[in-house]
Amino acid sequence: MRRYIATRVVTMFGVLMITLLITIALVGSNMDTILTQGIVFQVRSEITENPAIAESFSTVEEFEEFIQSQIEQRIKILGLDEPWYSPQRIGVTMYKIMMLDFGNATFLTSDEGSSDVKDILFEKLPRTVLLFTSATVIISIIGIFLGAFSSSKVGSIIDRITSSFAIISSSFPVWWIGMLMIFLFAFTYQIFPARATPDIPSSDPAYIGSLLYHMALPLITIVMIGFGSWAYLVRNFMVGIMQEDFIIAKKTIGIKQKKIIYTHALKNAAPPIVTILALSLSGSLGGAIITEAVFDWPGMGRLYFEAITVMDLPVIIGATYLLTVFFLISIFVADLLYGYFDPRVRTGK
Amino acid sequence: MSNITPREIKKEFLKSKMGIAGITILCMLIGVSIVAMITIPIDTFQEWNNPGNWISNPKVAIPIWINIFMVEKIPEHKILESPTIQNISNGEINLTSHQFGVNFDYDDFPNDFIYEFSAEYSDSPLLQMSVIRPDGLKLDLMSTSLPYSEQRTTHSERIFSTDESIKKNLSLQSEKFNFEFKRFSSEDIIFSKIESKETLKGNYIFSINLYGVNTDNQIQKSKLIVGGKAFGIMGTDELRRDLAIGLLWGTPLALFIGLVVSIASVIIGLLYGVYAGYKGKKTDEAMMRLNDIIYALPALPFLIILSVTISNSIFVMVGFLMIFGWVGIAKVSRSMSLQIKTRGYVDAANMMGQKDSKIILKHIVPQLLPYAFASIAISVPAAITTEAGLSFLGLGDPSFPTWGQILHDANTFGAAARGMWWWIMPPGVMIAITGLAFVFIGNALDAIVNPKLKR
């Protein structure tokens, strides 16, 4: 088991490094341009703020030369004189990103006004977790019970409704249903707010309540679209298990159907279900991007959307990194759980 | 899993109601695609994002068929392009007359009207515009001379209902009406009853007369637009685009994206997995590690970065979707090929000295084909929704009117807040229907090929 965990950790770390490398390779040259522009802007604004510097030069050429040398000096300090693909710079960049140092955002700021990408990200992340983790928990509870229930009555009306609902709901994009929900429940019948961002500052004690109220509509939408496929999945696992010999044996002994389903069968269906739960928790973090953009929920997804619109690369890189880390952690947990439940995986057979 | 012949699959498939429903929907979608490609010229969709192309359409018009359900009929937008032309020559003076008949049968006034023309003339002919109403009343709207020119020249112009001189002309005829209409717009006056400000239903005739001294004066292009609030089968959006065209063209594009991505990724995954499983040992180990890595990449953030930095062309996007699509299939087909390779005939072929590639393609891959077809069908909806999602975020290819693109525009222009359901509903319904067709087919196939699901 220990060896199994060790290999998984090594693999996951490798994946993280590769993701980082690919990300840097993709945005490297653009990042350099942005950083250089940032330096030029910074130097010029510093000099205009301090008129004494400009006065100390007699000719315009000299002055320009001074500015130029200042810019070059700073470029050198930051290591921007070397291309992004030089091993040294890649190393530094990767180390910085790993240590969650993403630099400063170009345009976006956190609610408190900080332009440090780390501050922005750690302000948004809890909200995404709040919305999508609660949604995933609700979905899985409904799904497991509905699925277990339908598997006990295979072919019944409830079973059929669950199955067809699962199939139909899985072909609708959640974010489109979100648009419809906003259309219906925010504008036609004004029950919920249209924008999920509370309009009071986050320091206000009423903020939590307001946030939860604004969360209602996205939460309902995600649960509505999500629980069907969960129930269907659980149902299929359970149907398979119900046909296994030991269950049939229990049936012949005369143990009640209900007891068999909710204790024996569900226990046996647990490993894949728990694994999928872990996976969908990670998926919920990344897959939420578009849904958040629709509802304007102030989390990672909307941050992504805003960062794309203004092309704020440091924020995009930071958000991608954070999502990758979370994604990997949950895959890792899912892996471990799977190995724990199914010893065949562990031994590599 | 492996001992089903294609004929059996077909037989079983035709027995499943779900499969038939899926095939029926798919055939309809293919039909729509063919109709779109035949009836709508390809340059229309290439001009999708060119506002100039849609100038004669109304802004945010509701679909026409809504009028069936309405008690008060909403005025339809009318673009009239073929007038009745008369040429009368009376000695020196020449008259070219264009007449447009408008059947106005609605309970609300039109938004406006625009007369668009280009005339070829020399000298300075006189252009007159008037309307004969259903109650026989004739209103003079405009009388102007076109700019003087010694040589033959072509002059193009648009006359809008908001034109000051039309208003002035109408106010000169105010004694014909029994109510004070000073503050009303020209089109309200023209289409109103004499007694009060209510729409007068019936046939209106707009005539445009061009008087000139020369015999060869001509109106070449002549178009009358009576602006309404309803247009086409699917209405229009904020940028006056005919949504029916976007929706129709979205169909072949969605099918293209979905099918290309899923077919290609299933083929890649199948070959990759089978090869890894067949080779075994270190090759397998290495290939599966690579598989793990790609599996662990978060797809959507990556797709976002890729389309931000590399290109948002639809073809590049299709390529990226393939890269993320093949991993799961590779895992499953590897485990399947591990089973198949232990069978006697594979061993036999191996001993007879057949090449690996031949064994894989001839003996192992055919066994996996039923599974591959089911996976193709099942993975199509994901490809379509992912593309739609990326387009929704504004990362789509702007030169193609995909459904996600339409929804993106709807979101940017606040369609939900403005109650423009016809901008939001149809694209999503189309995405869902297309997804459903493939989910149906996939599930029906899966139930046949996958013995575990059989009861």
Report on the architecture of this protein.
The complex is a heterodimer of chains A (349) and B (455). Chain A has 349 residues and is mainly alpha-helical. Chain A has helices at 2-49, 51-55, 60-78, 87-98, 117-152, 157-170, 174-188, 207-242, 245-253, 257-286, 289-295, 300-310, 313-341, 343-346. Chain A is built from 14 helices and no strands. Chain A is elongated, with a radius of gyration of 27 Å. In chain B, a hairpin with a 5-residue loop joins strand 5 (126-132) and strand 6. Chain B has a 5-stranded antiparallel sheet with strand order 2-3-8-5-6. A 4-stranded antiparallel sheet of chain B has the order 1-9-4-7, with no helix packed on it. With 455 residues, chain B is an alpha+beta fold. Chains A and B meet through helix 1, helix 6, helix 7, helix 8 and helix 11 of A and helix 7, helix 8, helix 12, helix 13 and helix 14 of B.
Summarize this, please?
Chain A has 14 helices and no strands.
What is the topological layout?
The complex is a heterodimer of chains A (349) and B (455).
Chain A: H1 2-49, H2 51-55, H3 60-78, H4 87-98, H5 117-152, H6 157-170, H7 174-188, H8 207-242, H9 245-253, H10 257-286, H11 289-295, H12 300-310, H13 313-341, H14 343-346
Helix pairs in contact in A: 1-3, 1-4, 1-13, 5-6, 5-8, 5-10, 5-13, 6-8, 7-8, 7-11, 8-10, 10-13, 11-12, 12-13
Chain B: H1 6-15, H2 17-39, H3 42-46, E1 78-80, E2 84-90, E3 93-104, E4 112-123, E5 126-132, E6 138-145, E7 149-160, H4 164-172, H5 186-190, E8 202-212, E9 218-227, H6 243-279, H7 281-296, H8 299-309, H9 314-325, H10 327-340, H11 344-351, H12 356-392, H13 403-412, H14 421-449
Antiparallel strand pairs in B: 1-9, 2-3, 3-8, 4-7, 4-9, 5-6, 5-8
| DSSP helix fraction of chain A | over 70%
Class based on secondary structure composition and strand pairing of chain B? alpha+beta
| Average pLDDT of chain A | 80
The helix-and-strand class of chain A reads mainly alpha
Largest interface here, residues on each chain?
A-B, 53 and 49 residues
Contiguous uncertain segments of 5+ residues of chain A: none
Find the count of extended strands of chain A (DSSP E, 2+ residues).
0
Oligomeric form:
heterodimer
For the record, give the distance between the C-alpha atoms at the N and C termini of chain B, rounded to a whole number.
15 Å
**Amino-to-carboxy terminus distance of chain A:** 13 Å
Rg calc of chain B: 32 Å
Rg of chain A, Å, rounded:
27 Å
- Sketch the topology of chain A as an H/E string, one letter per element: HHHHHHHHHHHHHH
Largest sheet composition of chain A:
none
Our estimate of the beta-strand percent of chain A is: under 5%
Helical percentage of chain B: 40-55%
Q: Which parts of chain B are unreliable, with pLDDT below 50 for 5 consecutive residues or more?
A: none
Mass-distribution shape of chain B: elongated
Largest sheet of chain B: 5 strands, antiparallel
